[in-house]
Amino acid sequence: MSDDQPETPYLELLARGAPAEAYERPVLRARAEGASAARLAALERAKLPALRVRGELEGRRRREAELSALFETAHDLAGLRDLDAVLQAIVQRARSLLGTEVAYLTLNDPQAGDTYMRVTDGSVSARFQQLRLGMGEGLGGLVAQTARPYVTESYFDDERFQHTRTIDAGVTDEGLVAILGVPLMLGSGVIGVLFAADRRARVFEREQLALLGSFAAHAAVAIDTANLLAETRSALAELEAANEIIRDRSEVIERASEVHDRLTELVLRGGGVHDVAAAVAEVLSGTVEFVEAHTAPAAAVDRSRADGHAVRHGEDWIAAVSASGELFGALVLRGHPRLDPMDQRTLERAAVVTSLLQLARRSADEAEQRVRGELLDDLLDAPDREPRLLRERAARLRADLDAPHVVLAAGIDAPGAAPGAAGGAAGGGGPGGASGGASGRASGSGSGEPGNGPRVRSAGSPPDEAADRQRLWSAATHLAATRHGLAAARDGGTVLLLPLADGEGADALARRTARQLGTAVHAAVTVGASAPVPAPAARPGEVASAYAEARRCLDALRVLGRGGQGAAAEDFGFLGLLLAGSRDGTGDAARVAGFVDRTIGAVVDYDARRGTDLVRTLDAYFASGMSPARTKDELHVHVNTVAQRLERVGRLLGPDWQSPSRALEVQLALRLHGLASAVAR
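Predicted structure:
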């Protein structure tokens, strides 16, 4: 790329990781050098996508750092030797990743009836580091009482909690202003509070609250594990004389250590929830299965989630898999009606690791879904994209944009919905029509809510309709990922770009997609398909036209009362010639020839092979008002000859060829065939 390209300075800034303010310099420099208005405008346009890319890169680096810190903490727990060292590491990582000036952890003292400062990082006040607080006092007391996280932007102006002279003096001495506190939960009880604080006013984001909550969960596990190890050592000392019991206990401890090591190894090498279940099953000599939330025993899962422990359910054991208040499912241990406490804790630890894996997988899935949606949005809205860049982006998603693809418009069919109504692919003709471009989107794939995909609800949409669109988008993105295609939310529905398999037609792909999406969302899904796009990367402009064609097919299905089905233009007979439209003018003759071949091709071929006059007989038959008597006069043959020829036509075209709809298509095909033959002569 030459220096005349406006993107060049921004690519250099991205390459060296320059700060955001540096992206103003190319425009300022060009203005100082007297650059033209067009040059300045081009630099301004190039700056915005560069800043978006920079933000995405920073977000990914931040997420990678967060996951790395969580995995390092899990590794620390697996090799737990010094509780203070593990807690100090957790507090340091929390302060670093949240970017706060201070982080600290307090623990409850049941014997003294108060709470005390256990670990601090970034603190400069000796008074603050030695605070002991009465239960229910200060922000930490509010967190401990409610077992919920709390945040204050300005500590001394916040009246939600009880201020005391001792606490306020310590906070003043430390100079803290904004404080975030999350509970350390052990079962349903609070054993302490993990804090992050700044010496200036600050707003903490929801992602930061969730991250601090994850560190708090690790801290609680570390404390619980340390207490458990202390209890084990005490039990071993008391039972030193009973060698067999000691041996049994040692085996249990070894199993626990083994499962911790194996779970840590699984996390570090990218294993999944089923790998965790298999590892725990091997250690516990039973059958362990991860089940989704909707299939797990509800009462047992609720008890396990409330207590934070595995619970007995008949002959099985249930450990809820949840994080930040969200239930992912449960681990079910079968074949162990009586479970050793250490093995019970092992199952519980496995549930914690499984919840972390579910969070990591969901974050990765959401990132991939956003990238797929952004690439498809660019194909629809920016047809002048560089093909090489499109191919590179597609390759990272395991998609081949040089292979034939079909554009599909999908929408959930609400009872009584009219074409263009909410719940389907509403709007004016898509990117190729009146509502194309950015204004035609309901939401781009990249505009998602954390953990929930994109906001596909439009203004005024009923809540159930918005939920339907969300379910459709989720099912479409999953289907696109499995088929190595792309999907995005658009115009109140969903658009997909799927590769066409060898020997498969666009109509068959549309019907199969309608069935798959309908099964996934448990509702009728209507799908309209375009004619194949030979190579979207080479000719990205055709994707927008194909989307408009798919939208027309979707609307036609609804007008014809065929909601819940899938179809392409070729399924509509001569109406398909109108629905297909024209992308560049080169495909019109081919579409006409295809229609003629599908409609009367068998008769034309029969005449060519046998030297008969079936086509001319059909022309005369329709010209004579479908009267055999007048047809025989037109052809100068016997009426029995006309009857025999028409009988042959019926065998070639099917018994319903004279029905009103079929007869209209046959007449139109005859007229087009005649015109084509005249041109050829």
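Summary: The radius of gyration is 34 Å.
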